[in-house]
Specification:
Helix 4 links the parallel strand 3 and strand 4. The protein is of the alpha/beta class. Strands 1-8-7-6-5-4-3-2 form an eight-stranded parallel sheet. The termini are close together. The protein has eleven helices and eight strands. 42% of the residues lie in helices and 15% in strands. This is Sugar phosphate isomerase/epimerase. GO terms for molecular function: isomerase activity. Keywords: Isomerase. InterPro entries: IolE/XylAMocC-like, Xyl_isomerase-like_sf, Xyl_isomerase-like_TIM-brl.
Length: 246
Amino acid sequence: MTERLYSVQLYTLRNAIETDLPGTLARVAAMGFENVELWRFEQYRDAYRRALAGTPLCPLSAHASLVDGNASGAVRMAAELGIGTLIEPRIVAQRWTTRADIEAAAASLNGVARLARDAGVTIGYHNHDHEVRQDFGGRTGLEVFAEALDEDVVLELDTFWAEVGGASAVELISRLGARVRFLHLKDGPYTTTLLEQQPVGQGAMPVADILKAAPDAVRVVELDDYAGDPFEAVRQSLRHLVEVDR
């Protein structure tokens, strides 16, 4: 059986990170997480380094603006912190309207990947809903994008936003294949109202089918917002994922 890796995107706990980063990581570790996806690691680099040293948590991945940001600086800091995969969280919707625009965006990310290889850092991309809304001959923009990426550039499929955009997350995983190395998992009704998001297993998402479709992908809990206690949402999400993954 494949060993399941569970992580949490610390954007979910951003308010706590801003006030008590070490305490937040300690609470995450106490829930049973062994991995984290860092948020704003460039801003909190030294604080993360100190806090991670005091926990068993591994920074498997992190988000950073790569295409329109300081990619070389982000890659350098990622290598220093031991981050294995550095993920571009968003390329603006205006760059997903034509095939040429999408392929140009992929070329930009490929350029970052070439920069990162020597540092031992893998580059990835995280979708929202706009990457799947438009049809390109029976394929989503995300699939056109993936076909133009270098082989070692990976995808972090945000399963919720794929479904909100009108695509089946399970079918996307099937078509994108092994390039999907990370799954962003959240739940709720299929709406863009962030405060309506729910812990994994408490909404409309076909969670069990998604997990079965990507047995080797890292399971990353992430809520963009939540009306209740985000720590409790993360705890409930992890509990559900572990139960469903058995």
